[in-house]
Amino acid sequence: MKGMSEFFSFELLATDPSGARAGRLHTPHGVVDTPIFMPVGTQATVKAMTPAELEQVGAQIILNNTYHLLLRPGPDLIVRFGGVHRFMNWDRPILTDSGGYQIFSLGSLCKITEEGALFQSHIDGSRHFLSPEQAIRVQEQLGSDIMMQLDECPPGGADGGHVRRAMELSLRWAARCQAARDPEKSDRALFGIMQGGTHESLRRKSAAALVAMEFDGYAIGGLSVGESRDSMLSVLSYAPELLPLDKPRYLMGVGKPEDIVDGVRSGVDMFDCVLPTRNARNGQLFTRFGAFNIKRAGNRDDPSPIDHECGCETCQHYSRAYLRHLFINREILGIRLMTLHNLFYYLSLSREMRAAIIAGKFLDFYRDFFQARGG
């Protein structure tokens, strides 16, 4: 099965002179405007947020993780509940990561072979095997709108030989993922994942082979895994252009606001990261002026909101002093309010970039964004 699922399509609506793109994804569970940030709901929940609150902050699509849902509660249970959308009461699009990154991050608890990955659960030590075919089967059971191929993601410090072998294995697994798709479940889109580390020749080989396989969309993997920011920007200077103009481009796991803005300028459409939710739980808040920590002593009696110009519920109704009080006293409400703000900021950033692209003024937006951060 090649080419677009009949239930999935991508419209490229505008391209800014900078190369930034505005588009629209059509999926069985609704339309997604790009560029877009996808909140991470690893275990069928975006931590601290209800689905209604996700809609409130502007989330259009979220990410679930195959590895975690395979272990708990298991795809068979989710099937009995009618799929992951009904299981978690989220009726908008869902992308499922194949779990490759999580499995390979287990290090010595994982053994990679041509057939797939043999790994020990981080929960109880039980042994599991995940092949490309099984990765597709589990994602089809979950019922996500966008599935990802199983790939091998080497760490940022891996030597060239390791990176090349991982890229070539990922290509062979990509072909097996394509072949494993169930024709009766053609409403699921499948994305291929470009690998190659920071080696341009390997990236070019990976992209050419994946494009020939005619995936529904393409991801740039193997970044934000320990390489320097300059190395990441170097890859982004050419990698998106290796992918088709008429297919969505997804930069996996890259999530600092500055990196997302640079990614959009490079022609990327989709992003995900745990930063806005994880960092909220650690007291870090993202704003148009950069990030700051709510634990700072100066916030103890500060009546101002996180950001005077932010329209989120947290900024409209709660002071820095109150948020610090909640966080210092480990009150759950503090984590919820700060998570809500961070996600609102990320999704507002997506909307602002889209508007600037459509207006043909993304470079103005780009300059103002970094100037506000003192860059």
As for the number of domains, it is 2
Residue share in β-strands: 15-25%
Average pLDDT over all residues: 95
- N-C termini distance: 47 Å
Can you walk through the features of this model?
The termini are far apart. This protein is an alpha/beta fold and 375 residues long. The longest helix has 27 residues, at 332-358. The protein has an eight-stranded parallel β-sheet with strand order 4-14-13-12-11-10-6-5. A three-stranded antiparallel β-sheet has the order 1-2-3. It folds into two domains: 9-273, Queuine tRNA-ribosyltransferase-like (TIM Barrel), CATH 3.20.20; 274-375, no CATH class. The mean pLDDT is 95. It has helices at residues 51-57, 66-71, 75-80, 84-88, 100-104, 132-142, 160-180, 200-213, 229-236, 257-265, 275-281, 313-317, 320-328, 332-358, 362-372, and strands at residues 9-15, 21-27, 30-34, 36-39, 62-65, 94-97, 110-112, 117-120, 127-130, 146-148, 189-194, 217-220, 249-251, 270-273, 284-287, 290-293.
List the helices and strands and how they pair.
Blueprint: E1 9-15, E2 21-27, E3 30-34, E4 36-39, H1 51-57, E5 62-65, H2 66-71, H3 75-80, H4 84-88, E6 94-97, H5 100-104, E7 110-112, E8 117-120, E9 127-130, H6 132-142, E10 146-148, H7 160-180, E11 189-194, H8 200-213, E12 217-220, H9 229-236, E13 249-251, H10 257-265, E14 270-273, H11 275-281, E15 284-287, E16 290-293, H12 313-317, H13 320-328, H14 332-358, H15 362-372
